Amino acid sequence: MVNTLGLAIGLGAALTFVVLHFAKGASNPAPEDIAADVLEQRAATVPETDFPEPYNRSIGGGGGAGAVAGGAEGELEDSEEEDEGFDPDDIADDEVEYYEIEFVNEGETIEVANNETLLDAGEDEGWDLPYACRQGQCVSCGGRVASGEDASEYIRHSNNESLGDSEIEEGYMLTCTAHPTAEFSLETNETP
Ligand code: FES
């Protein structure tokens, strides 16, 4: 009798515990995922940019990218100013001038236009002249005013990233980017 009463009390307590357990769980639903709301709120604080999607309104990215782009643009403008100078393509057809250039080592004198390079003109004659980059970035095509006078009196470079002022004053030039501005005698295959 005592055992039956104890068993009944025990079962009642267990049942009560189970009911309370589920009742508590049901009254506390899992929190909603607020990640999307947070992202939207943060995105709203980022100013609009001119960048197309997906960068537009990107969190922390649009403004930074804009700043970098602005800086790069500024640097480009500076370098363009520095490089501003002689472009042979800017010479109009009716402004093209020709100069008699003596190629000493080749033993001939030819006419070279001021919108063509000494290297191109020599190659047109079939001469095997030295070169590598053809962009003024090495000295493989080096030549020299035979008299040793300042090369800037006779040519101008469309691009020179190799020779210093003193070397040019000694008569050296890069024939791949050198355009004649006067008649002179040229020694090819000459480097400082
Ligand atoms: S070939 Fe390189 S500077 Fe002329």
Automatic annotation (TrEMBL):
Q: Which UniProt keywords apply?
A: 2Fe-2S, Electron transport, Iron, Iron-sulfur, Metal-binding, Transport
Against CDD domains, the record matches this protein to:
fer2
Task: Give the record's family classification.
Answer: Belongs to the 2Fe2S plant-type ferredoxin family.
**The organism of origin for this protein:** Halobacterium jilantaiense
- Per its Swiss-Prot or TrEMBL entry, what cofactor is needed? [2Fe-2S] cluster
Name the coiled-coil region(s): none
Q: Which GO terms describe its molecular function?
A: 2 iron, 2 sulfur cluster binding; metal ion binding
Q: Which PROSITE patterns match?
A: 2FE2S_FER_2 (PS51085)
Compositional bias per record (Gly residues), positions renumbered to this chain: 59-73
Any idea where the 2Fe-2S ferredoxin-type domain is?
99-192
Keyword Transport listed? The answer is yes
**In what ranges is there compositional bias, type Acidic residues?**
74-91
Which superkingdom? Archaea
Recorded hits in Pfam families, A to Z, give: Fer2
From the Swiss-Prot or TrEMBL record, give the protein name: Ferredoxin [2Fe-2S]
The annotated region (Disordered) lies at: 49-91
